[in-house]
Design a protein that fits this description.
36% of the residues lie in helices and 26% in strands. The protein is of the alpha+beta class. InterPro entries: DUF1462, Thioredoxin-like_sf, YuzD-like_sp.
Length: 104
Amino acid sequence: MTKISVVVYGADIVCASCVNAPTSKDTFDWLQPLLKRKFPQHQFEFTYIDIEKDTENLTDHDQQFIERIQEDELFYPLITMNDEYVADGYIQTKQITQFVEQHF
């Protein structure tokens, strides 16, 4: 069984570039049952990081993603798996499942 650490970086406010997209928290909540159901052979560990509130005790890796979001290089919600970038902005099921199928 492969362990996969899934991190969703987000904020309470919907990303300005992601009009009509689900909130970061909704994406986090939707992602958990999706991955567990689609890939029961893997063990997922889920973490949500609010880019505006959860700024203490983060790894350098987490800080770098938050800085890139704040500098508008990336959008939120942003998803990583085992510290690898997966997708950002308007998240779609196909992006997530293809990443898991190709990498794990």
